[in-house]
């Protein structure tokens, strides 16, 4: 049986000569073709390096969290395309070191930690890692998207417009909170998970020293006759999407999840104290009833009825 010839023997090798005058093919990137000469000119023209926002937020929660608060955390994950979700963390005194390590492993620069205690109270830690500062909030008036069932709807991953009430510029601690909210809730430009659209608004307003959060969709008519001109805000409407919650600031710390106390809210009352007062009020009602019964008995003993002379008249 004859042997087969090798492929190298049948196909002659042709050496391709490179043309020295031919231009070099530009490098291909995810954003298109990148020409070396253009990049060199742009780098030479700009004296300082262009700032690029690489903000990433780690979102996690504590163990034994309530289902309602877990749904709120998932709503926030869906609203922030630049966030990373992680497993539950044990709520202990050493949680700060654990969270800082998780943030470093995930390559993030900020953290949102939802801490649930006694299956009733929800605390939100908002921290810049690893150097700080960090804020601890008590979360009240929680209403999730699934619970509200509002008609608003916007693109998932689109960039939000952040709006703040004028109260944020009054005091120093409100200015610090405003800057932290801008850095954490603001989606970076050209983030790979985000879309280059602004079709919803995050509203942060201060009422009674509490921060109230609302999320609205920017609705624009798409008919040819009702087309909105650039800058025409008259025909634009806001439709609420959700979720809703209220943040009561407790303390602002100098470090990440701890450190020196920069600000402490003097009007803050813990939910444990509120529940204790309610129990005392309920116990006070019962004690009033018992005291009223004893007073009645003492009155009857001190003021006995006179014997009636006609009481035994009809016994016979």
TrEMBL record:
Chief location bin: nucleus
Residue ranges, compositional bias (Basic residues): 282-298
Cellular component terms (Gene Ontology): nucleolus
Pfam families, per the entry: Brix
Domain Brix span(s) in chain numbering: 55-258
GO BP, sorted A to Z: ribosomal large subunit assembly; rRNA processing
Recorded family membership: Belongs to the BRX1 family.
Protein name: Ribosome biogenesis protein BRX1-like
